[in-house]
Structure formats: C-alpha cells, structure tokens
Specification:
Number of strands: 14
Order of helices and strands: HEEEEEEEEEEEEEE
Helix content: 10-25%
CATH topology of the largest domain: Glucose Permease (Domain IIA)
Strand content: 35-45%
CATH class of the largest domain: Mainly Beta
CATH superfamily of the largest domain: Glucose Permease (Domain IIA)
Structural class: alpha+beta
Radius of gyration: 26 Å
Largest sheet: 8 strands, antiparallel
CATH architecture of the largest domain: Distorted Sandwich
Bound molecules: zinc ion
C-alpha cells in the first residue's frame, strides 16, 4: 500500500512534467521519421534519373539494365579474385545481371565502337560528351546498333552474355564501364547500383 501511495504522490507532483516530456519525445520522433522518409524518397528519385552536367551538356542517366543486380563492383583499390584467371585483380567496371539480360544506353550519345574484344567479348562504346563514354562488354553477338548510330538514354543495345573471356566463369552478365577523360572511372559516380 505504501508503495502505491508513493507512486500516486509522485504522479501528483511530477505527472504533468512526465506527460509533457512524453509528448515532446513523441513529437520529435514524428518530425524525425517524417524528415528521414522525405530524405529517402529524394535519394530514390534522383538515383533513377540523375541529371548530371558533364562540361556544359546536361545528361540524364538511366540504368544499363532494367532492375539490374550488382554481381561485382568496380574496384581500383581492393582486389577481387578472378575465378576465370585464377588470380587477384582490380575490376575496371561493374558486372550486372537482370532477368531479361537486355542492355540499354545509359545516356544520349553516339555509338563510336562495336568490336569483339579479346578480353571483354562483344563490346559497344558510346560517346556521350568529349570527355565521357560508356562501355558495354560481354554482350552476345546480336548487336542492335552500329558505329555512327545516335542513341538516347534507354535505347536497347543488345543482350548480355558470357563472351568476356576474362570473366567467363562468372556466367552471363554485363561488364559495364565508364571512361572519363581517358580513365576508367567508377560508374557509381553517375549511376546508383543496388547490391545483390
Ligand atoms: Zn567485369
């Protein structure tokens, strides 16, 4: 009984403060959660179609595959073990897979090269600006564009396969690379990829 009385007394004394404190915490929580979800929304929208000004030309980027999943990330610092070559290597692009394996141009540009590379198999290179190109490797031989073609972001280029001889053990996938000022860069600088 005495214990209960103490609790009742405590509430008489501090009840108002306690209720106020609970309310403040609750309101702060709501503000925080609303703020966070607004932030997440923003990241998602911009990741889908980020507009990046490259030099003076504004480019809108889209993904090279629909609902792409990341198989192997770009890495210029951390070594990956290559199942095909049996040694540790850097990875100058990113490897992607999707359910239909269709490959699309990531931004407007011109097809400047379609070749059968000894390392990356059937490979298409698209020049977007003077300093920026995208490279699509390990494609099957049925290429839907040719040198000189103008493409838009989202133009279908062909389908991913396992023609990259140096990555054959990884199975069918797209080896996607980007070249900025003659250097292979991390495509994540322009596109946002989700981990598998
Ligand atoms: Zn690769």
């Amino acid at each position: 009984m005495e214990k209960q009385n103490k609790i009742v007394q405590w509430f008489k004394k501090y009840g108002t403060y306690a209720t106020a404190a609970v309310l403040v915490v609750a309101i702060a929580g709501v503000i925080l959660v609303t703020g966070l979800s607004a932030n997440v929304q923003k990241v998602n929208t911009s990741a889908k179609n980020p507009v990046v000004s490259v030099g003076t030309i504004p480019l809108t980027f889209s993904m090279p595959m629909a609902n792409a999943q990341l198989l192997k990330d770009y890495s210029s610092e951390e070594l990956f073990f290559s199942k095909t070559l049996g040694r540790w290597e850097f990875h100058d692009g990113i490897d992607l897979v999707s359910s239909d394996m269709k490959v699309f141009a990531v931004a407007d540009g011109e097809v400047v090269d379609v070749e059968n590379s000894s390392l990356y198999g059937t490979t298409i290179t698209i020049k977007h600006t003077d300093g920026l190109s995208s490279v699509y490797g390990s494609l099957n031989s049925t290429v839907l564009v040719k040198e000189g073609d103008k493409v838009k972001a989202g133009t279908e280029l062909g389908a991913a396969d396992s023609t990259a001889t140096n990555e054959a053990a990884d199975g069918k996938h797209l080896h996607f690379a980007m070249i900025e000022n003659n250097k292979k860069i991390d495509p994540a600088n322009y596109l946002e990829f989700e981990s598998k």
